[in-house]
């Protein structure tokens, strides 16, 4: 940081709105792909656990191990194989979502009261209908809670992927650090946090919209 | 409302074995169409297991169950279940669906057109005493236990099933609500003509609701008889104890004054002035209480103004012994 330079140069911010919009697009894209792909994989793994409970131990072990690998280390390890690409970023980001998503999907569906399941089967629901019409809707609040955590942590991790040339608002932080330019650094950090807060609020609204019965009592 | 015709239900040599345990042992009995059969017994007697074998939530190890002569094991389970009403103690309403949606469950699964479903749903809510405009759009969490149980019954009746299975449906509500629900259930069942298999551990409920009572113990059928017969002639000490030492009194509650032979040889003018006046419709139990309360040894039976005869304590005694 240069002497006499203000902490935030508003004129710089005003002249870089286009770049913020571009970085926002990148950040959202990386996050949506990560959570979307992660959700599909996690849902499949969860169904496997629910059908064959002995797979729960191994799946929890693998997703738990993925979760403990430091993110920067993981990206570094992947670069020899997939380079400085979005694929490298997404492999890591998707991997980090799995533990939380699998845990919440399984917990949500297991939390459906036994008598609800029995009544549904007793009245002639086919097993597939039971899953999609009864179990998943009733598990939705817990599942979306998992999606919220996964989304927020992914938005945070995306800033790290700037180090491998991806990374949305992370690029602002990185470039601000390299150039000792506090305005860019702070802009990147504040925008990342704001995005996380907005994404969370959006998901809360989606959850309330999809589960009107939870507010009825 | 279209009245359904109940189907006969027959158990033939039905057994259910679990590793190291025989839950149901060679069960055979027949429920006539349109009647209420109560399965009663202590916990672990196999009554719920027997019930759940009818809609194949549990598969029998051996034997067959027939509904109107058709073996349930030859039917596809989901199709079979859509044709059988099912009510459980915890009700199991779907919390994410409105009351109307819950009631419409089986018609929806059967693919009824929307307009027919809407009409039927309204009809059913009214039938179980829930004002459709007030309740249709609420969620189960907004209802009391008794209201939820009514919705459970309406849901089970939705597609006019010829057979209904009920597993302790009134076990979780308080005694006053239970009594009211039982009375409404009887009215609805008479109206619809549905054959009902009903599990309870409460002998009073069995006697009140059952056309036939199947007493079970350790997976075996111990006695299968109408309530009056069960109270008058329990087949063994277990049944006698299960129905209670006051079974004579309970039996009097099932019989009416008009249903016994009155003594008509006594002229009305000779009957003691403080003898209670009884109507033919009152139960012998009520008659006995009133006769004892007035110290009269007889009750004067009047149908309106018409003198029918006198009821004596010795006659009531005979009814208790079951030899009248």
Q: Please, could you describe this protein's structure?
A:
The complex is a heterodimer of chains A (217) and B (324). Chain A has helices at 10-15, 17-51, 56-68, 71-82, 86-110, 114-122, 127-160, 169-178, 182-210. Chain A is mostly helical. Chain B is of the alpha/beta class and 324 residues long. Chain B has two domains: 9-245, Rossmann fold (3-Layer(aba) Sandwich); 255-321, Roll (CBS-domain). Chain B is 37% helix and 24% strand. Chain B has helices at residues 47-54, 77-82, 99-103, 105-109, 114-127, 132-135, 145-157, 175-192, 203-209, 227-232, 237-243, 247-254, 284-293, 313-321, and strands at 9-18, 21-31, 36-40, 62-67, 70-71, 84-88, 163-167, 195-200, 212-217, 220-225, 277-278, 298-303, 306-312. Chain B has a six-stranded mixed sheet, sandwiched between helices. A four-stranded antiparallel sheet of chain B has the order 2-1-4-5, covered by helices on one side. The longest helix of chain B has 18 residues, at 175-192. The radius of gyration of chain B is 23 Å and the shape is globular. The model of chain B has no long low-confidence stretch (mean pLDDT 91).
């Amino acid at each position: 940081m240069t002497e006499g330079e203000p902490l935030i140069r508003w004129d710089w911010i005003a002249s870089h709105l286009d770049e913020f919009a571009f970085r926002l697009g990148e950040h959202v894209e990386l996050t949506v792909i990560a959570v979307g792909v992660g959700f599909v994989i996690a849902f499949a793994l969860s169904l496997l656990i629910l059908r064959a409970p002995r797979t729960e131990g191994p799946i929890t072990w693998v997703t738990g191990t993925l979760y403990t690998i430091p993110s920067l280390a993981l990206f570094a390890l992947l670069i020899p194989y997939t380079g400085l690409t979005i694929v490298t970023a997404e492999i890591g980001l998707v991997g980090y979502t799995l533990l939380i998503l699998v845990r919440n999907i399984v917990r949500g569906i297991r939390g459906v009261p036994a008598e609800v399941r029995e009544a549904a089967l007793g009245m002639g629901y086919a097993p597939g209908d039971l899953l999609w019409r009864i179990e998943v809707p009733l598990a939705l609040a817990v599942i979306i809670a998992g999606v919220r955590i996964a989304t927020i942590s992914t938005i945070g991790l995306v800033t790290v992927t700037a180090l491998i040339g991806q990374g949305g608002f992370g690029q602002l932080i990185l470039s601000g650090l390299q150039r000792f330019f506090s305005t860019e650094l702070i802009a990147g950090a504040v925008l990342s946090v704001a995005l996380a807060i907005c994404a969370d609020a959006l998901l809360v609204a989606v959850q309330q919209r999809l589960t009107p019965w939870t507010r009825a009592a | 409302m279209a009245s359904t015709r109940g189907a006969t239900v027959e158990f033939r040599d039905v057994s259910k074995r679990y590793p190291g345990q025989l839950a149901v042992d060679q069960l055979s009995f027949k429920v006539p169409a349109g009647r209420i059969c109560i399965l009663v017994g202590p916990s672990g007697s196999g009554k719920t297991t027997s019930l759940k074998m009818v809609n194949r939530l549990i598969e029998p190890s051996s034997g067959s169950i027939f509904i109107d002569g058709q073996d349930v094991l030859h039917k596809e389970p989901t199709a079979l279940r859509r044709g059988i009403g099912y009510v459980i103690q915890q009700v199991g309403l779907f919390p994410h669906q409105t009351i109307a949606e819950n009631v419409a469950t089986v018609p929806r699964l059967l693919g009824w057109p929307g307009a027919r479903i809407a009409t039927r749903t309204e009809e059913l809510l009214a039938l179980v005493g829930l004002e459709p405009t007030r309740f249709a759009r609420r969620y189960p969490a907004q209802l009391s236990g008794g209201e939820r149980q009514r919705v459970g019954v309406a849901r089970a009746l939705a597609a006019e099933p010829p057979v209904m299975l009920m597993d302790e449906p009134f076990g979780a509500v308080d005694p006053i609500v239970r009594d009211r629900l039982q009375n409404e259930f009887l009215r609805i069942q008479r109206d619809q003509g549905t054959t009902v298999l009903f599990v309870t551990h409460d002998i009073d409920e069995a006697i009140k609701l059952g056309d036939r009572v199947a007493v079970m113990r350790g997976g075996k059928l111990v006695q299968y008889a109408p309530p009056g017969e069960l109270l008058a002639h329990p087949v063994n000490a277990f049944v006698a104890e299960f129905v209670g030492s006051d079974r004579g009194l309970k039996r009097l509650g099932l019989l009416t004054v008009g249903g016994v032979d009155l003594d008509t040889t006594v002229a009305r003018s000779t009957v003691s002035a403080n003898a209670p006046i009884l109507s033919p419709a009152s139960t012998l139990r009520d008659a006995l209480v009133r006769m004892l309360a007035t110290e009269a040894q007889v009750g004067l039976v009047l149908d309106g103004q018409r003198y029918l005869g006198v009821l004596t304590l010795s006659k009531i005694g005979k009814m208790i012994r079951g030899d009248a």
